[in-house]
Design goal:
- One of its GO terms (cellular component) is cytosol.
- The structure is a single chain.
- 32% of the residues lie in helices and 25% in strands.
- It has 381 residues and is of the alpha+beta class.
- The chain has two domains: 154 residues, 60s Ribosomal Protein L30, Chain: A, CATH 3.30.1330; 198 residues, Phosphoribosyl-aminoimidazole Synthetase, Chain A, domain 2 (Alpha-Beta Complex).
- Helix 1 runs parallel beside helix 4, helix 7 crosses helix 11 and helix 8 packs across helix 10.
- The protein is globular and about 75 Å long.
Length: 381
C-alpha cells in the first residue's frame, strides 16, 4: 500500500473537500417556518421529503384543466445582493420571474420549488434567500412545496450563489388567454414596474462600473443608495392579474384577452409574443414617464434608447390586452388595488409604413412568429 504524501493527504472527507453537510441541515431548520407559512390544505407533508406533495383534488372540478409550468432565475442581480450582503429580496425576484409567466395565460400558480447553488453554505444566508422566496409565494398565493440547496466548492466562490425556481399552475381550457383572443381595437394597458426587476443587470452593472459609482452612493433622485435602488424587489403581478380575470371575465364574457410579462427583451419584444400574426400594437411612450433609475442608466452609460428598450422594462412590468369597452373598468380595478396602470396603446393591423419604420418596429420575438409592436413618441417629462 502506498503511504500518503503531502500531495495526497490521509483521510480526505466531504468536509475537507469543501462541503458542510451539517451547515446544510442548519439551513433547513432555519427556513422551515418561512416555507410552512406558504402552505395550505393542499400541501401534504412537511419540509425535508424527497418530493413535495400537492393534493390535486381541486382539479376534478375542472372540465378540461390545463397545467401551465415555468422556470427561471434572476440573472446577475445576485451579484448586487452578494456585494451588499442583502439576500432576502432575491427571493421575491425569483418568484415574480416564475409565477408571472404562468399568469400570462390566465393560469393560477399552485405550487413552486426552488434551487440554490452556492460555493459555501452559510445557513443564515440560505435561510434569508428562502425567506424571501416564501414571502413572494405568499404574495402570489402559491405554495412553496420543496427545494434544494447544493454546495459547489471550486465552482463558485465562498460568497457566491445562484438561484432558480419552477412553478406549476392550472387554467380551464376554455378560459385560456393568448394571441387567439386578441382583436383589432383592443387596448394595451401598462402596469407600473417597481424598478429594474430582474433583467438587464449585465448592462446595468457594466454602466455603473464604467462610471465608477459605488453601491453605497447616496442618490438624491432615489432617496436612498444606488445599491438599495438596484435591489428593489421585482413586483409580483399574479394576484392583480387573477383578480382582473375574476372580475371581468365572467360567464361567457371574456374582455381580458391576454397579458405580457415584460422581462428579458423589453416591452416591445415581449408584447409581440402574445399578439397574433397580422396585428400590431401601437404603444405611445408619452403615456408614461421614464423612472429615475432608467434615466440614470441611460445617461451614465450613454446607452442608446433602442438598446435600453431591448434590454430593460423601462417602468412597465406587465401589460394587459383588453377589449376597448372594458379598458376603463380594468384600469380602475388595477389602480384600486394600488397598482398604477394606464392605457398605453391600441391593437390594429400592421401597415407598410410601420414595418418600414426601423428600430421602433418589432415583429416576432423569442422564437414566436406572432404579431408586431410599434413604439411611438417620446417619454413624458
Amino acid at each position: 500500500m502506498t503511504a500518503p504524501t503531502p500531495e495526497t493527504p490521509a483521510g480526505i472527507t466531504y468536509a475537507s473537500a469543501g462541503v458542510d453537510v451539517e451547515a446544510g441541515d442548519r439551513a433547513v431548520e432555519l427556513m422551515k417556518a418561512s416555507i410552512k407559512a406558504t402552505h395550505n390544505d393542499s400541501v401534504l407533508g412537511g419540509v425535508g421529503g424527497f418530493a413535495g406533495l400537492f393534493d390535486a383534488s381541486a382539479l376534478l372540478g375542472y372540465t378540461k384543466p390545463l397545467l401551465a409550468t415555468s422556470t427561471d432565475g434572476v440573472g446577475t442581480k445576485v451579484a448586487i445582493a452578494q456585494a451588499m450582503d442583502i439576500h432576502h429580496t432575491i427571493g421575491h425576484d425569483l418568484v415574480g420571474m416564475v409565477v408571472d409567466d404562468i399568469v400570462v395565460v390566465g393560469a393560477k400558480p399552485l405550487f413552486m420549488t426552488d434551487y440554490i447553488a452556492c460555493g459555501k453554505v452559510v445557513p443564515e444566508r440560505i435561510a434569508d434567500i428562502v425567506r424571501g422566496i416564501a414571502e413572494g409565494c405568499q404574495i402570489a398565493g402559491t405554495a412553496l412545496v420543496g427545494g434544494e440547496t447544493a454546495e459547489h466548492p471550486g465552482l463558485l466562490g465562498e460568497h457566491e450563489y445562484d438561484v432558480a425556481g419552477a412553478a406549476t399552475g392550472v387554467v380551464e381550457a376554455d378560459r385560456l388567454l393568448g394571441p387567439e383572443r386578441v382583436r383589432s381595437g383592443d387596448v394595451i394597458i401598462g402596469m407600473a414596474a417597481s424598478g429594474i426587476h430582474s433583467n438587464g443587470y449585465s448592462l446595468v452593472r457594466s454602466v455603473i462600473n464604467h462610471a465608477g459609482w459605488a453601491l453605497d452612493r447616496e442618490v438624491s433622485e432615489f432617496g436612498r443608495t444606488l445599491g438599495e435602488e438596484l435591489l428593489e424587489p421585482t413586483r409580483i403581478y399574479t394576484a392583480d392579474c387573477l383578480d382582473l380575470i375574476d372580475t371581468l371575465n365572467t360567464g361567457s364574457a371574456m374582455p381580458v384577452h391576454g397579458f405580457s410579462h415584460v422581462t428579458g427583451g423589453g416591452l416591445a419584444a415581449n408584447l409581440a409574443r402574445v399578439l397574433p400574426q397580422g396585428l400590431m400594437a401601437t404603444v405611445d411612450r408619452s403615456t408614461w414617464e421614464l423612472p429615475a433609475i432608467f434615466k440614470l442608466v441611460s445617461e451614465l452609460g450613454s446607452v442608446p434608447q433602442p438598446d435600453l428598450e431591448r434590454t430593460l422594462n423601462l417602468g412597465v412590468g406587465m401589460v394587459a390586452i383588453v377589449d376597448a369597452a372594458s379598458a376603463d373598468a380594468a384600469i380602475s380595478r388595477l389602480n384600486a388595488r394600488g397598482l398604477v396602470s394606464w392605457a398605453m396603446g391600441t391593437v390594429g393591423s400592421i401597415t407598410d409604413a410601420a414595418a418600414a419604420s426601423g428600430l421602433d418596429f418589432v415583429q416576432g420575438a423569442k422564437g414566436v412568429d406572432g404579431g408586431a409592436v410599434l413604439m411611438q413618441g417620446n417619454f413624458a417629462r
